[in-house]
Structures are given as C-alpha cells and as structure tokens.
Design goal:
The complex is a heterodimer of chains A (about 240) and B (about 350). Chain A is an alpha/beta fold. Chain A has two domains: about 150 residues, P-loop containing nucleotide triphosphate hydrolases (Rossmann fold, 3-Layer(aba) Sandwich); about 70 residues. Helix content of chain A is about 40%, strand content about 25%. Chain A has ten helices and ten strands. In chain A, strand 4 and strand 5 form a beta hairpin. The two termini of chain A are about 35 Å apart. Chain B is mainly alpha-helical. The longest helix of chain B has 27 residues. Chain B is about 70% helix and about 0% strand. Chain B starts with about 25 loop residues before the first helix and ends with a helix. Chain B has a domain of about 220 residues. In chain B, helix 3 packs across helix 9. The chains are: A alpha/beta (about 240), B mainly alpha (about 350). Chains A and B meet through helix 2, helix 3, helix 4, helix 5 and helix 6 of A and helix 7 and helix 8 of B.
Chain lengths: ~240, ~350
C-alpha cells in the first residue's frame, strides 16, 4: 500500500484552475520530488494534502485513510508533517521551544517534549543554537528549524516545500545529507523543489507538473531525458546531461 | 503510532543545558520578586491610612484582572470587553446574595461558571475567523450587555437587575462568611492573594504544553496547526480560564465597593482599564500585567481623585495618552525592556564582584 495516494484532485480558485485531475502516489521509504514551473500547482497540492485547502473533488489517502475534510492538526496527528516555503518560525520562542511545540504533539509532558526536542536538534546538528530566538535566525537556520520542528512531531511522511530556496551550495549539500539521514530513520519524503541539481540528486522518483496537471513521472534520468519535461520546465541544459 | 522517526548516528544523550535561556528570569529578578512580595505582605502593618491601602487594593485587583485578561492575549487575541465578564461575576454573586442569601464565596463560583460559558459562546464562532473579529465582538458584547442591564428593571425569570440604579450589596458589618469585612486589611490580603494566584497560574501555564501552544498560535497559526495544534480548542481553553478568573474578580469588586452598576462593572472604561494594564505591562508576559497595574492603577486613581471632580472624563484622556506613548515606544510593553535592564544590572554586579 502506498503511504500517500492522490486520486483525481481538482482545485480551482474562482475562475483559475490550480490543480486538475491530478493523481500520484508515494511509496513508503521513498524520496519523491514534485517539480514544475511556477504556478503549476505544486504548493496547492501540498496544501490539499496537509488539510489547508479542501479539494473540490478527488481524494487524498494517507496510509489508506482519506484525509479530505480533516483539519491540519488532525492530519499532523496521523503522522504527516510539513514545512513551509516561506518559513514560519515562532519568533519569540527559542529554537528549543519551537521544536518542543512540535514534540508536544506526541509527548504532552514538558520534560519529555524537551528531551525529544534536544534529540531532534542534535540530529539536525542544531544544538548549538538552541537558545537563540526564532526571529534572530538566518535563512538557513530557519530551514533547519522548520525541519526540526516537523520532525519532532514524529511524522512517517514529511512534505518539504522548497527546502533549498535561498541557501548557498554548501548549505544545500549539508541539507541533502540531512534528508538522506532522515529517510534512513524511516521517514518518507515528498519534496517540492526548484533546484534541479538537488532534486536529481536526492529523489528516486520525480513527478513533473504543468498547469495543474501531471505531465509525467519517472526516475531522475527518465525525466531529464524527456522532451516534454525539458520544454515545460527543465530547459536544454538538462536535456543533454 | 507512526514509526519512531530519525535515529541518526550521533543522537547520543542530549547535550546539557547551554547558556542562559534568552527569556529565563535572572536570579536578580527572582530576588526582586521575593522582596516585593515581602514588602506587600508587611505594608498593612506599617501603613494604616485606608486611602493608601485602597490604592494598593486597586493595584492588586487590576493586576489580577490584567493577568486574567492576558491569558487570552497569550493566544494572540485582544479582548476589549473583559468588563462584561467582571460584570457577570459581580452581578451573579450579588444577585444570589440579595435574593437568596447565598454567600458570595459560593456565588462567585456560579458567576465564574456563567462567565466561562458566555466566554465560550463568544469565542466559539469568532476564534475561527482571523483578523479583528474577536476584539470587535468582545466590545460589542460588553456594550450590549451594559445597555441591556442599564435599561432592564426586571430581567428574564424575574431577576431584579434594577437597571441603571445598580445593586447595593446588603451590609452585614463584619461578616467574613459573607465576604464582608469592616476594615481594608482583609480586602488587601485577599486581593493580594488573588493576584498571586493568577500570576502563579499564568506562570504554570507558560511552562506547560498549553502555554507553548498559546505562544505558537499567536506567532503563526498555520504553522501551529501543521504541528498538530487545534488552535480553536486552545484559544477557547484560554478564554474559559480568563473569563472564569475575571468573574471571580467581579465578585471581589462588588464586595469591596459594596455597590455595582452597569457602567462601573461592565462599561467600556473598565474594559479599557483592564486591557491597558496588560498592554502597558506586556500582554504576553507573565508579570507584565502586574507591573502595568503597579504603574497605572495609582496614577489613574490619583488623576480621578484630584482632577475627576473638576474635569470629568480626564482619566480617559490620560489612558489615551498612555496608550499612545506605549504603542509608539514600547509596543511589547514595559516588561521586556525592564527585564533587559535587570539583566544588564546583574551582569554589572557580577563583573564588579569579580574585580573586587
């Protein structure tokens, strides 16, 4: 059984069709990428999965359970975490406290949540900044914070919305390693990303979206060679690679 | 239970506590709190002038009300009609006492329950919306309630609300069992105790999951929800506790002044006074409202006492000015800068200790 299965998703905003007849699946233990030009509907798909938008029609199955109509907090409780493209730190809480908020989802006692949060911070190599306030962090640290916070909720599937945006090459490399570690820890990853190098490097399978629809899906090699994907999004550079 | 995520290679024992937490109260501030508590405890032994005691009682009462109010503030919600809950508490306990002789010690809890129920009824629809709807609804509700009581001689079920006349608490002399004392001292200690309990409760809430969740909701509701927080539920919980406490304060208010009327117990003036104490002090901090009340309550009482006769309504202008200054220069209240100053002072002391 797929950990995540999307069936015939439709979403329109007024006259604009954002997502149309979209379907795909993510298998347990995979890292799957969702790519496509700006406005293709990637984030809308994420928002429907995480419960922020209700699809006009279609279904979202997570571990066999239909999520449509559920609230974001209920979906989180089932084990589906997400990070945001525009990071949303809790500015007047420290890094540790930010991550504790996530840990509380499974551990209602402050002591246990703190312990868990410290563990997660160690894992994402962030312990040294645990007492810094959320609004004092740099871009890369915001990303790490988002990741740590989402991980602290113990997700079995994690949606990452453009985790690489705004990072320099060294930071990207570091984050890639981290994602692989996280997957080794048993978390399935579903990533929206514009950085093609990162996507090709990280993902086992890639879904290409264009104008709200699925254009194609395949391994990074297949996608990189596909003329449709090249003309819609990748450009010549990847076609010859 | 989903699989335990993330067993990374270097996840050994978590590191020990590092440097100072940015918001942890310093040792010096604990000493200041202890000293202030001690001082407040012995003041009635040194100071017998009832007027001064009265001012202290107002300080404690508004610190209590401001702290209660700030619990909703911690969820990022601004209530500008908290006097409604004060009024519900005061009216309920006083009416129960007048009509059926129920002691206010018991009546206050009935008022608290009623107030909490009303708070939930206001919060339930409005907490789902974003923007100023909650604040607007609280003002509207408090004003509707005040106007209704002001114009209703006999309410539903024959409750004698006595319109604008207000309720006079029947005097029983010194009757501690009926929440009546013949000197200021018992009210002083009672209001002090209530303030300490409210601050203590707020302190405890801030150290538990509930407090973390309120902070998360106020910082970013979407992020909070995707971390598993049912924001409506926790806002409602904060509202319930806040309304409950405000109503208990309302009973104290009625018993202390021995008279309440719609304007004094539910009016916009009181609502603003409660909110102002919190905003000036720091409405998202545990001790902020207390500090706000220490600063504002004596000032507003003095303004009212010395200038209220000649220039009625001057204290409202005064509130407006204070609010403008605070919003312009200390948007997060006085508590943060004060804490910073204490911390700097502490660092200085430590340094001079090392030298000497």
């Amino acid at each position: 059984m797929s950990i995540l299965k999307l069936e015939n998703l439709h979403k329109r905003f007024g006259g604009l069709v954002a997502v149309e007849d979209f379907e795909m699946a993510v298998e347990e233990g995979e890292i799957v990428g969702l790519i496509g030009p700006n406005g293709a509907g990637k984030t809308t798909v994420f928002n429907m999965v995480a419960g922020f938008y209700r699809p006009d029609s279609g279904r979202v199955f997570f571990q066999g359970k239909d999520l449509v109509g559920m609230k974001p907090h209920q979906i989180c409780a089932l084990g589906l975490g997400r990070t945001y493209q525009v990071t949303k730190p809790f500015g007047d809480l420290s890094v540790l406290e930010n991550v504790m908020v996530g840990a509380f989802a499974r551990l209602p006692r402050a002591r246990e949540a703190r312990h868990r949060a410290l563990e997660v911070l160690q894992c994402v190599d962030f312990s040294d900044r645990k007492d810094v306030l959320g609004h004092e962090l740099t871009t890369v640290d915001h990303k790490r914070l988002e990741l740590a916070r989402a991980l602290a909720t113990r997700p079995s599937l994690l949606l990452l919305d453009e985790p690489m945006a705004g990072l320099n090459p060294t930071e990207k490399l570091h984050l890639l390693g981290l994602f692989r570690d996280i997957r080794k820890g048993g978390v399935t990853l579903f990533v929206v990303e514009h950085d093609m190098k990162a996507v090709m490097n990280l993902c086992q399978r890639i879904v290409v979206m264009d104008r709200g629809r699925k254009l194609l899906e395949g391994t990074p090699e297949q996608v990189a060679r596909d003329p449709q994907a090249i003309s819609a999004y990748l450009g010549e550079e990847y076609g010859t690679a | 239970m989903p699989i335990s995520a993330l067993e990374c290679v270097h996840a050994n024992a978590p590191s020990v506590e590092g440097r100072d937490h940015p918001r942890r109260s310093s040792a010096l501030s604990w000493w200041i709190i202890a000293a202030a508590t001690l001082l407040f405890l012995i003041i009635p032994l040194l100071l017998h002038d009832p007027y001064y005691l009265h001012i202290f009682i107002l300080v404690f009462l508004f610190a209590y009300l401001g702290t209660a109010w700030s619990l909703v503030g911690m969820a990022g919600q601004l209530s500008l009609g908290h006097a409604a809950f004060l009024g519900i508490g005061g009216y309920t306990s006083t009416l129960l006492f007048m009509e059926w002789g129920v002691t206010p010690w018991l009546g206050m809890w009935m008022g608290a329950i009623l107030s909490a129920v009303v708070g939930i009824l206001i919060g339930y629809p409005t907490f789902r919306l974003r923007g100023p709807y909650f604040a607007l609804t609280t003002i509207a509700f408090a004003e509707i309630l005040r106007i209704y009581v002001e114009n209703t001689e006999v309410g539903p079920f024959g409750i004698p609300l006595r319109a604008g006349m207000g309720l006079l608490v029947p005097l029983k002399g010194s009757a501690p069992a009926l929440f009546q004392f013949d000197s200021k001292e018992p009210y002083y200690y009672l209001s002090f105790l209530m303030m300490c309990m409210a601050v203590g409760l707020s302190f405890l809430i801030n150290r538990t999951r509930f407090g973390f969740y309120l902070a998360a909701i106020r910082a970013d509701q979407d992020a909070a929800e995707s971390l598993g927080i049912n924001s409506t539920r926790f806002k409602l919980l904060a509202m319930t506790v806040s309304c409950l406490l405000a109503a208990l304060g309302g009973t104290f208010y009625a018993q202390y002044f021995r008279y309440i009327n719609p304007e004094r117990a539910m009016g916009l003036g009181i609502s603003i006074e409660i909110a102002l104490v919190g905003i000036v002090g720091g409405w998202q901090t545990v001790l902020g409202p207390t500090i706000g009340s220490v600063l504002l309550s004596p000032l507003s009482e003095l303004v009212r006492a010395y200038l209220g006769g000649t220039y009625a309504g001057l204290h409202l202008i005064f509130y407006g000015l204070v609010l403008m200054v605070v919003v312009l220069f200390l948007p997060n209240g006085i508590f943060g800068p004060l804490q910073m100053a204490i911390r700097r002072l502490e660092a200085k002391i430590r340094k001079s200790d090392e030298k000497g």
